[in-house]
Amino acid sequence: MSRGTADIMRRALQFCSQRLLQKHASVPAVAFSALSYVKCQHVITSKTKLYLNYRCFSDVGTYSKEVESVKPAVITNVPKPNSPFMEELASCTSPSDVLDLTCRIPPTFLQLSHCLSQIWSSTKKMSEEQRRMELRLMWEHAEWDRLLQRAVGGVSYLPNTHLVFALLALVNLGVGPKTRVVQTYLRAAQERINEFDDKNLSILSACLENLEEGTNVKALKQGIRILVEERLPRINNVVHLQTLMRLVGKDAPLKLKQKLESKALSLSDQFTLPNAQHMVSTMATLGFTSKPLLSICSHKISEHLSGVPFNRLLTVLVSCRELRYRDLQLLEAVSEYSATTIQVWNNKQLLLLLSSLEALSFHPSALLDSFSDRVQSDPGALTLRDLLCLLRVSSALNYQNHRLFLCLSSALELYLQKMSPVQLLRAQHSLSLMGHFPQTLLYSLLHESTMTQLRAQESRSVRGQLSVVELCLRLDRPQLPENFSIPTSVLSSSSAPSSSSVSSPSSVHSPSSSPSSPPLCPKSKLSSALRTLIEHRSGWSVKEGEFLEDHHFIDAVLTKSESISEKRQRMAVLCVTPSAFCFGTSHPRGPLALKLRHLRIMGYLPLVVPEQEFASLSEERRVQFLRELIFPNEQKI
User: Fold this and answer.
1) Which of 144, 200, 190, 132 is nearest to 170 (CA)?
2) Who's near 15: CB < 8 A, 6+ residues apart?
3) Based on the number of CB atoms within 10 Å of its own CB, is 178 exposed (0-12), middle (13-18) or buried (19 or more)?
4) Integer CA distances (angstroms), 366 to 342, 369, 451, 589, in order
């Protein structure tokens, strides 16, 4: 072949290669293998590359590649060395360090997104006070505005992943949602949303959670939901499905949530243990309670608790609380498992578990017993925060363990000098619910200076706890420290004058002494059944809706005069909701236990009627239910 012919063939091959690249313009030029003419064999090979004139945007910088002719050597993918800028950026530990670096070395567009992410990641490692200070310095830095302006200009050059990460950093740093830079990035995300993979959509969804509703935000949320619905039929992977479920958000349409539920149920036979754990938290993120799906996950978790890490187990319990879902098998399994493996758990972990179980109104008897023994053997191992937490949980669940409360009271005395008035009140409130009144703690709480600070509090919880403590001092009448009397001003600070007293319980029956009753629930059925029950019984009377001590509300009071001396038999009928009991049991929680104790002190026989169970009965069966409760020894009529 002549030299002229070879030259013509070379030019023809280059022309064809250029046309091929133009035809596939959407694919980066570096992805193609160029065709080159090899002199020695006069054949076409794909091992050599054709270099065209194009611009590359990378972390190293912007550079050009000139068209080169035949390159006989094979070019391999050699990793690019880290740029000096990126190496210095990785060592920045504060927003100011990053901004100072951008002053010295102007970053490329991709490096800008890294700068924003580095600023955010550096602040996450700081304390709350240090973070506020650093962010204030960042906003006052002269380079910050220039950085944001350059970020606006470079948004079109950012790959999808860089785009969403930069937007996430901007949102987390507190850049206003109506600013030009955030709106520019939101519009860019709208234009490319069809190109986003699941990871990018997930990051974008996290950005939108913290942004106030606007045109662009609404459009993006709607776009995410459309993409999820389109991709749903072809999903056969549980992890992939869970990612899409998290993207939808709590404010998604109910129909879409139901479609996701159906898809998840169709894949339930593929659930692994980690899948089951993540599915519970995913449904909490979605804001959708699917009992069939949660039941499948709960049973799988309860059967393999030994393979569940602590953090994931805690996440499952917290998610169940958010979903208002309780599975007795799972909760009992958690209690038994943590009790038998208590040696491998530290106090913080056990207290977190107890708090989570208490939030679900579950009484973990096995765990409480084991942890109580551990605390009594070494009470000094608990910090003040631990003691307050254990007191709150134990009293809320009405855990009757006198030795434990004596131990906790003694341990609290070591922290009296460090305790704030609010902490003193919280501790005594928990102890008062259980009928414990340690003298040292009471003396510190009832000191005039402490009570003055508490009376100045505007918190409803503080006022409510003060009211309970005052009521217990009045009714339980604990033994106070020697030569110590409660000032009248202390007692009157937390509650109004009572409508009745311990010395004169009969006064509660006077219509003039009782404040207006709150509206009764479907408890009219209770009143009707009670009146039917005592209709033909002489000496019996019923009074509906009564307050005792301006604190305890009673649905009905049954009274019978037994003799001329006007000795009276009184029964307090309480129509109680399921939330007043520990889940799955008839064990009363702290507030109900307190009411029952005080009613007995005031001379009443408390009778508890479960509201839901009672309402589901027929009229005849309701009367029969009350007859068996109030007159257990009487023959059935």
Assistant:
1) 144
2) none
3) exposed
4) 11, 5, 38, 17
Write down the pTM of the prediction.
0.72
16-50: pLDDT as tens digits: 545 444 444 433 333 323 333 333 333 333 333 32
Strand partners, 557: 543, 572
Query: What tokens appear for 41 in the block?
Result: 């064999």
354-392 per-residue burial string, b: 16 or more CB within 10 A, e: under 16: bbbbbebbbbbbbbbebbbebbeeebeebebebbbbbbb
Tokens of 93: 């530990």
Whether the CB-CB separation of 298 and 330 falls below 8 Å is answered with yes
DSSP 588: B
Residue 490: name the closest of 425, 432, 431 by CA. Answer: 425
Distance CA 398, CA 362 (A): 11
Give the position of tokens 């962010």: 135
List residues bridging with 63 in a β-sheet.
56
End-to-end CA separation in angstroms for the chain: 122
The CB density around residue 286, as the number of other CB atoms within 10 Å, is: 22
Compute the distance between CA of residue 361 and CA of residue 393 in angstroms, rounded to an integer.
10
Sign of CA dihedral 613, 614, 615, 617: positive
Name the DSSP class of 62: E
SS3 558: strand
- Taking a C-beta distance cutoff of 8 angstroms, is the pair 186, 167 a contact? yes
Contacts of 287 (CB under 8 A, 6+ apart): 249, 250, 251, 257
Which DSSP letter does residue 575 get? E
Contact by Cβ (8 Å): 118, 98 = yes
Name the residue ranges covered by the structural domains of the chain.
Answer: 3-65, 419-495, 505-630
pLDDT per residue as tens digits for the range 64-84: 333 333 333 333 333 344 678
- Classify residue 46 by burial, with Cβ atoms within 10 Å: 0-12, 13-18, 19+: exposed
CA dist 226 → 189, 210, 218 (Å): 15, 21, 12
Tokens matching residue 531: 């009146």
From CA 148, how far away is CA 166, in angstroms rounded? 11
Six-digit token string for 349:
């972990």
Alpha carbon distance 426, 58 (integer Å): 58
C-alpha distances out from residue 308 to 48, 238, 280, 339, 347, Å: 53, 18, 13, 15, 19
Burial class, 250, CB count within 10 angstroms (exposed 0-12 / middle 13-18 / buried 19+): exposed
Residues 263-292 pLDDT 10s: 999 999 999 999 999 999 999 999 999 999
Residue 585's SS3 state is coil
